[in-house]
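lol forgot to send this yesterday, sorry. struct tokens for the thing we talked abt
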């Protein structure tokens, strides 16, 4: 390597921005001030090293001696600078071949920068130079001190370069930031951007400065590597901290850092260790575009959800992105909030924990469902979590008591084994526990109370047994629970809330209504948690609602709006998190619960569980316009006009369940106005919109509506009116009626198909869910079914017209032997006896009279017309037969055949024989 002259660092006479880019200020090992034992200045190689050809170094090749009275050796370099500012610190160092990477500790002016990794030099070399950190230096005297750290190495020189000021770049390399503690620049990985990356261990920080051209909201993207599994980092932007999840990644990849509210000029972006070792490569900053409207569909994953559940979902979707619902864990803390603020939270959150069978076995009891029922009666919303005590295998020992059996380390229960062995006791115990909770949820359904149901929460953390075996068993258990509660127990009052932001853990769109994550920021951090919000929104592509079902500090309502962090609701955890004044100050709590952005229980509509609103501005407008000029409207505006011929508004009404509804329109009118109101093209009324300068609900009437799509049309009036929305308020279900039709109602020998029809949609719960039952014989069949409101019904099909048995028939003749072959026509009388025990005899007819000889055969006397007076196809029983036979034959045989039929179409034949013997004499 080239020799770097030992030189005194001259004071910087110009601002750092004026220094030439290639200017560097260097101090050699000779300038170091040594202190303590072990450290020394050397010029000879270490041990048997034959490669080193430098001119000397500060040697840290020594073992520490705990018994020494002197401190462990350090080396200090003294630097004078004309101006305070940010400087790059590089080291020239010596590590013999085979020694590997080492760590040195650095302090600047008495403050620790942290442990800096000195990478092993390239193959064939024992010296290297590395820019190890950016440091802040004071104007005037400064000291940079190196302590031994870990391993044997030498420091040849210290190089200081003026750092360039922050620029408004879209991308900031991590290696250009200021690092403290264990954070250091790494270069040994592959695939990173720039000249290095920031390697994180257990302590320290990385600070970058971004010069924003203008104040506003910006999107952050983070380049990182996390080869050792999922990790988390704490990202602080101008002091506002949020937790960022870094999914496992073998190479370098990118993750969203959420949004940040930046001010014009310099902004600080700092990374602090969260959990685990990882590397930060870069940060990208870009201006956030205008927020898009959410594309969440007002549809639950359970199509048979109760009307109350659908109404609640309608309300949640309607307010998503416009407000946040307040919530609190435990009724006692909800009451405390009321005492402090004068308002109850909108949502009461509680736990199914003490209904777990393994807790009940130890004497646990609970009244939480009773509390929830009362809360809902008082106008609030209910949500349940389930700290599911393991079905078996509780250790029940000090520190791992039976009542902590939901923790992984308090039970031996193996969820993966249970799910892989459905024949096992463990699997059956899973079903037993789910069934026990179903009993409690059914109590809520019977009380017409919908539930925000959040089972298997925080699974990805692994600290609960349902997540201890990884994502696949957790997802399988969730889907098992969904199927058991929905299809086996027919619980239709649940809105399903999943609790993880990780794509690997997501159980699927078909079983999730709301996605969520629990966030516990540091005390007093009221940030909007935008990174987590964006992560969840991206997980479901903005197709599901996003909620915050557990939090420590409550997000600040103003920041939520500024960042467009549209959490559907927050629920503060119990105890100190809400009451101790540190996580949430009393002033903050009062500000939150009195914010116009935050919905409290008193602000929930009285018809929360029966109301369905349809915004006028989302309809089809003819000659009208959408306005936002007046205040107090719902949704994105209101429709105004209706004063010209042809003006009309068509609002699509998606009726969730069949029933009787009250239809109303929210309006304002200057003077009384009369407008035609039509439903599905049929006029309901010429409704008089009474004069009102404020928004008023006008009731049109009550109507029976089938589930599905309908159209509401409002025509022109004379004069101006404004329409905000149409509202359907559910009153009662249409009585479930069933009829059965039959493919045949008259006697038949075919199968009969009975078809069930109902006056509203149902799911048939037997007969293979088919509405057609095939009768192969007479009998009855009972259809069982459930309608969309959860009401069960039966209908009995009865068939008695199937007859597949032919009638009986016998035939006898008045004369069966014509003794004298004299060619005469002999009268024959036939006696018929037909019977049918099924559909009855429909008729008997003569079908044929045949002879074994020709009508005029050889030797029979040449008399034609041997059969006379026989009316074939009728019930003729009187005929004439000729008494003759061929002289050449053995005798004549007449066969007389009749056919009987019944009303079902079955037929049978019978015959009688009349003979003319050959031996007869004339």
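and heres what i got for the seq, position by position
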């Amino acid at each position: 390597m080239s020799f770097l002259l030992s030189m005194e660092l001259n004071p910087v006479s110009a601002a750092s921005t004026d220094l030439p880019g290639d200017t560097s200020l260097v101090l050699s090992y000779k300038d170091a001030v040594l202190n303590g034992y072990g450290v020394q200045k050397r010029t000879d190689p270490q041990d048997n090293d034959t490669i080193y050809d430098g001119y000397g170094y500060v040697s840290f090749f020594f073992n520490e001696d705990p018994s020494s009275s002197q401190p462990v050796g350090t080396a200090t370099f003294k630097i004078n600078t004309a101006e305070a500012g940010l400087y790059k610190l590089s080291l020239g160092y010596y590590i013999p071949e085979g020694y590997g990477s080492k760590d040195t500790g650095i302090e600047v002016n008495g403050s620790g920068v942290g442990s800096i990794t000195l990478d092993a030099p390239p193959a064939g070399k024992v010296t290297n130079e590395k820019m190890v950190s950016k440091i802040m230096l004071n104007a005037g005297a400064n000291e940079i001190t190196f302590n031994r750290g870990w391993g044997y190495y030498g420091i040849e020189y210290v190089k200081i370069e003026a750092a360039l000021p922050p620029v408004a770049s879209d991308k900031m390399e991590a290696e250009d930031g200021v690092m403290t503690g264990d954070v250091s620049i790494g270069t040994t990985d592959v695939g990173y951007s720039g000249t290095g990356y920031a390697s994180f261990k257990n302590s320290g920080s990385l600070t970058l400065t971004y010069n924003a051209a203008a104040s506003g909201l910006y999107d952050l993207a983070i380049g990182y590597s996390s080869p050792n599994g999922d990790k988390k980092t704490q990202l602080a932007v101008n002091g506002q901290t949020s937790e960022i999840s870094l999914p496992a990644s073998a190479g370098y990849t990118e993750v969203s850092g959420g949004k940040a509210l930046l001010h014009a000029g310099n902004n600080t972006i700092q990374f602090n260790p969260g959990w685990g070792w990882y590397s930060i490569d870069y940060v990208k900053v870009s201006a956030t575009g205008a927020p898009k409207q959410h594309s969440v569909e007002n549809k639950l994953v359970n199509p048979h959800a109760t009307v109350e559940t659908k109404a609640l979902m309608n309300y949640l979707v309607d307010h998503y992105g416009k407000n946040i619902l307040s919530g609190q864990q435990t009724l006692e803390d909800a009451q405390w909030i009321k005492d402090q603020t004068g308002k109850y939270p909108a949502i009461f959150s509680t736990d199914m924990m003490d209904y777990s069978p393994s807790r009940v076995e130890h004497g646990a009891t609970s009244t939480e469902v009773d509390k929830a029922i009362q809360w809902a009666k008082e106008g609030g919303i209910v949500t349940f979590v389930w700290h599911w005590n393991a079905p078996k295998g509780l250790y029940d020992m000090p520190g791992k008591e039976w009542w902590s059996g939901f923790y992984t380390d308090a039970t031996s229960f193996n969820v993966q084994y249970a799910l892989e062995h459905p024949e096992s006791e463990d699997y059956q115990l899973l079903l037993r526990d789910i069934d026990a909770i179903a009993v409690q949820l059914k109590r809520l359904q019977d009380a017409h109370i919908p539930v925000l149901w959040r089972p298997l929460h925080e699974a990805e953390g692994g600290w609960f047994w349902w997540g201890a075996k990884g994502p696949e068993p957790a997802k399988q258990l969730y889907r098992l629970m969904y199927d058991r509660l929905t299809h086996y127990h027919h619980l239709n009052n649940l809105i399903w809330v999943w609790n993880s932001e990780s794509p690997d853990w997501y159980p699927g769109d078909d079983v999730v209504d709301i996605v969520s994550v629990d966030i516990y920021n540091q005390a007093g951090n009221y940030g909007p948690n935008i990174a987590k919000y964006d992560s969840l929104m991206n997980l479901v592509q903005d197709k599901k609602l996003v909620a915050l079902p557990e939090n420590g500090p409550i997000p600040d309502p103003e920041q939520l709006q500024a960042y467009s962090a549209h959490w559907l609701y927050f629920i503060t955890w119990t105890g100190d998190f809400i009451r101790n004044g540190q996580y949430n100050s009393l002033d903050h709590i009062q500000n939150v619960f009195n914010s116009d952005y935050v919905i409290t229980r008193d602000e929930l509509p009285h018809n929360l569980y029966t109301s369905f609103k349809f915004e006028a501005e989302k309809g089809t407008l003819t000659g009208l316009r959408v306005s936002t000029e007046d205040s107090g409207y719902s949704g994105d505006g209101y429709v105004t006009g209706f004063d010209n011929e042809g003006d009309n508004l068509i609002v699509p009404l998606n009726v969730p369940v069949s029933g009787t509804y009250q239809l109303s329109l929210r309006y304002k009118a200057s003077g009384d106005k009369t407008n035609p109101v039509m439903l599905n093209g049929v006029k309901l009324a010429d409704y008089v919109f009474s004069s009102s300068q404020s928004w008023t609900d006008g009731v049109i009437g009550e109507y029976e509506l089938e589930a599905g799509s309908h159209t509401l049309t409002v025509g022109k009036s004379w004069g101006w009116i404004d329409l905000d929305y149409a509202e359907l308020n559910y009153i009662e279900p249409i009585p479930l009626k069933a009829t059965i039709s039959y493919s045949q109602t008259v006697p038949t020998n075919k199968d009969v198909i009975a078809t069930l029809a109902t006056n509203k949609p149902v799911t048939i719960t037997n007969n293979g869910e088919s509405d057609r039952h095939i009768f192969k014989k007479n009998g009855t069949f009972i259809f069982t079914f459930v309608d969309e409101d959860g009401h069960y019904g039966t209908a009995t099909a009865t068939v008695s017209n199937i007859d597949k048995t032919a009638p009986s028939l016998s035939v006898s003749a008045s004369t069966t032997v014509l003794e004298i072959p004299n060619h005469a026509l002999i009268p024959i009388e036939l006696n018929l006896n037909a019977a049918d025990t099924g559909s009855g005899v429909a008729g008997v007819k003569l079908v044929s009279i045949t002879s074994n000889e020709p009508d005029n055969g050889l030797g029979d006397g040449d008399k034609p017309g041997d059969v006379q007076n026989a009316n074939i196809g009728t019930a003729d029983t009187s005929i004439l037969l000729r008494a003759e036979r061929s002289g050449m034959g053995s005798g004549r045989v007449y066969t007389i055949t009749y056919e009987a039929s019944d009303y079902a179409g079955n037929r049978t034949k019978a015959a009688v024989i009349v003979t003319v013997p050959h031996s007869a004499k004339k």
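The chain has a mean pLDDT of 91. anyway ping me if u want another try
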